[in-house]
Design goal:
The chain is α/β, with parallel strands linked by helices. The chain is built from 10 helices and 8 strands. Helix 2 links the parallel strand 2 and strand 3 (64-69).
């Protein structure tokens, strides 16, 4: 498929300090390519001057669209809102904090031209704290198991997609929206390439422990039945262990005699073990049921308040 137009989708959340620099660098890179292009900024409920700056950029540049969401819906939901508005044959995503250098975009587009459906970036010499890199390591391995293909850096937002993969993803209306994992599972040809990684232009990351936990829940319950299968196996093993332990206690009682003090502590240990497993099982089942509920209800992931683009 020949590429005629490239869409760049940028989620924005309180990034007023970096927007102008991002726009300047992004425009310079895209103008150097031989394709038509558009830049789709999606403001995800910013509380700073980001919405006003995006409106100004959209009014002065016909290549820019500014989508203002009604509130903060989360990074991946905001990207999906941008996907719905994107018109390019290839869609590129990157963060607004300039940790993803726009100058790396031609490398991703070149890989798409080679015939790949999805191209992910692998951040080289990461400028993130050790704890953040450790979380990414765990996430990458979890995503690889769930998706069924190796993902070396699913946390990198600098990625390129063929439009047909994006359209298929949007048609699924998936309740669990972790875009790298979902698109990797849909792509026929998927690859990752090394890309540069810079320090944040200003401010600090908007991701905290709670947001990472939500991502883990999405990965665990949104793309595979493996967790519930593991719980079933664990239940079978626990039941078997309980039976064997009961048999052991019976034989011990017959051979040695009753020991009341040890019996109380043993009972407490078994009780806590089974209570923990029961709560884990209930939590997983509840997570699956909630996702079924969200998909059946069919509510939109986001609500758009305003869309700005130049009339020229």
């Amino acid at each position: 498929m020949a590429i005629k137009k490239i869409s760049v989708v940028v989620p924005v959340f309180n990034e007023a300090g970096s927007l102008q620099t991002l726009y300047d660098r992004l425009s310079k890179v895209l103008c150097s390519l031989r394709f038509d292009f558009e830049i789709v900024f999606v403001d995800d409920g910013s509380q700073d001057k980001s919405p006003a700056m995006l409106k100004a950029l959209a009014s002065q540049d016909t290549h820019v669209k500014a989508i203002i969401l009604a509130r903060n819906f989360g990074q991946h939901s905001a990207v999906c809102a941008g996907f719905e508005m994107a018109q390019g044959d290839v869609v590129v995503t990157l963060d607004a904090d300039l940790q993803n250098p726009p100058e790396e975009i031609p490398k991703l587009v070149a890989k798409i031209e080679e015939g790949f459906d999805v191209v992910g970036g692998i951040r080289q010499t990461r400028k993130d704290p050790v704890a953040r890199r450790l979380i990414s390591f765990v996430t990458n391995h979890m995503a690889s198991v769930v998706v069924g293909r190796t993902m070396r850096d699913c946390g990198c937002m600098l990625r390129a997609y063929r439009k047909d993969v994006i359209d298929e993803m949007l048609q699924l209306n998936h309740a669990a929206v972790f875009i790298p994992a979902l698109t990797a599972s849909l792509a026929n040809r998927f690859t990752e390439i090394p890309v540069a990684h810079d320090m944040r232009f200003e401010g600090k990351s908007k991701y905290n422990l709670f947001r990472f936990l939500l991502i883990y829940f999405d990965l665990i319950t949104g793309y595979s039945a493996i967790p519930i299968q593991i719980v079933s196996i664990a239940g079978f093993v626990t039941a078997g262990a309980g039976f064997l332990f009961g048999l052991f206690l019976l034989v011990r009682r017959l051979v040695i005699g009753p020991d009341v003090s040890q019996g109380v502590f043993t009972l407490m240990a078994i009780l806590f073990l089974f209570m923990g497993l029961l709560l884990l099982v209930l939590g997983l089942i509840g997570e699956y049921i909630s996702r079924i509920y969200l998909e059946v209800r069919g509510r939109r992931r986001t609500r758009i308040r305003e869309i700005f683009c130049s009339k020229e």
